Amino acid sequence: MRVQRSKGSGRFDVTDDGRGQTSRSGLAAVREVADRIGLTSGLSAAAAPSCPPDVLHDPGAVLRDLIVTLVDGGDDFSAIEVLRGQAKLHGTVASDSTAWRRVNDLAGDDVAIARLDVARRVARQAAWRAGAAPAAVGDPAAGPLCIDLDATLVTSHSDKESTAGTYKRGYGFHPLLAYLDRGDGTGEGLAGLLRPGNAGANTAADHIDVFESALAQLPDLPEETRILVRADSGGASQAFLAYLRQAHVSFSVSMRLTDPIRAAIRTLHAHTSVWAPALTQTGEVRDRAHVAEATGMLDLSAYPPGSRLLIRREPLHPGAQQTFDDEDGYRFTALLTDQPEDDLALLDQRHRAHARVEQRIRDAKDTGLANLPSADFAINTIWLQLVLCAQDLFAFFAALALDGELARAEPKTIRHRLLHVAGRITVTGRIPTLRLDQDWPWVQQLLTAFQRIRAIPLLLA
Fold first, then answer.
1. Positive or negative CA dihedral for 121, 123, 128, 129?
2. Does the structure show a pLDDT above 60 at 319?
3. What is the DSSP letter of 83?
4. Which residues pair with residue 426 across a beta bridge?
5. 156: nearest Cα among 175, 168, 170
6. 244 vs 459: which has the higher pLDDT
7. How many CB atoms lie within 10 A of CB 371?
8. pLDDT-derived band of residue 399, with 50, 70 and 90 as boundaries?
9. Does 3 or 220 have the greater pLDDT score?
10. Rounded to whole angstroms, how far apart are CA atoms 415 and 394?
11. Arithmetic mean of pLDDT, 163-168
12. Would you say residue 190 lies in a domain?
């Protein structure tokens, strides 16, 4: 067998005399989304009362460019210099020190977050009206509109205000977050509460605060739209569930396996007739996985009337170690819900979709949350709101401009294929043109994205 010798890359010269070139063509589309749905003007109105009256750069444009920097994958203020260095595409962009000052202004204003929330809600309403509304809003039969709550750990490698030891023996913060599950594998960032690393995972007051902020982010909904709050066992506190009942919102939360629940599991496991086949997220029967109801076997009087306890069993995954909570090679989990449907498999399937919040949190950490940039807690609190806003922009960009697998792709994939695309800007008759590489595999998708975005009416206020 003859093997052809490997050849090195072809030699080429490198010069610094290029003009009108950009490596971030797709980011211009994201900036246009922010402008057209009124986010930029809303941020201007939110930031104006906090900053000096004689600033050179519009504060809304500064915050928009900082948010776009997070969409780009930046994780500190200095990353805005990437946009600033491509003025041919992005125009005048403020420096990192100016961006820091605008965030610092907001951090010193007690009602700044409330004004930012208004700007985000108005932009969300405009995006939904333009075609980005989740399916459950237009078609209540598609299922309830689901809000997922979950906490995560953000490691701090330096001593910052309100950092503390975490339950995993780390050091940092323990924010609690709320995301809207759009039902297509993507989600929107509704609300977040930055907390010290030693904050409790099941603190009812924090869950109530975040839920209220998340609910306030939703535009006006049709009366028939149902809202379902999903959470892991941290959201299963009786006080929080009682609050949701008062708010006329349904819940579906995981439950820890207490002794009474374990006893019910052992009884149910011995009766094959009570188990219904479980479903995958695509609606197919899950092999050897089942669901049963244990509501009448336990005292649930401490929970809102109508609460139901469901048990799921599935085979242990290959290599998993059996624990005291497992029986005969099965792993058991429990969920508490007040949904009235009789289809146990559907209720279980709907609850297990809560796992998508883990992807939303990973996306957040890939969009600026992994590195809270300041030693000041108030500045980091504003930063968290900008991260959620960046996740919203990702969701709106995908819903309004993309199709197929790209519309459901992770931020990293969208960056590599659409946002970090090289282009050249030429001017003919004073009209600039962004010229993309015709051989780029996703050039048509990016062109289509620009066309769809520019068809959205410009919302200035």
1. positive
2. no
3. H
4. 433
5. 170
6. 244
7. 14
8. very high
9. 220
10. 10
11. 93
12. yes
Pick the last residue of a domain from 363, 391, 425.
Answer: 363
Specify whether 97 is located in the same domain as 161.
no
The predicted pLDDT at position 19 comes to: 84
Which CATH number is 247's domain given? 3.90.350.10
Domain that holds residue 205: 143-363
Residues with Cβ within 8 Å of residue 453, at least 6 apart in sequence: 29, 32, 33, 36, 397, 400, 401
Residue 227's H or E segment, with its range, is strand 227-231
- pLDDT score, position 8: 62
Q: In the 8-state DSSP scheme, what is residue 196?
A: B
pLDDT digits (tens, 9 = 90+) for 127-160: 999 999 999 998 878 889 999 999 999 999 888 9
336: helix, coil or strand?
Answer: strand
Three-state DSSP class for residue 253: strand
Tokens 């809102």, located at residue? 304
Residue type present at position 286: R
User: Which SS3 state, helix, strand or coil, does residue 332 take?
Assistant: strand
* Distance separating alpha carbons of residues 105 and 100, to the nearest angstrom: 9
Residues 278 and 340 in one domain: yes
* Residue in this structure with the two tokens 């809000």, named with its chain if needed: 147
Looking at the structure, do residues 205 and 323 belong to the same domain, yes or no?
yes
Picking from 188, 178, 320, the residue whose alpha carbon sits closest to that of residue 249 is: 178
**Looking at the domain assignment, is residue 134 inside a domain?**
no
User: In 10 A of CB 101, how many CB atoms?
Assistant: 19
Band (pLDDT 50/70/90 cuts) for residue 62 is very high
Structure tokens at 367: 């969009």
Domains in the chain, number? 2
Entry pTM: 0.93
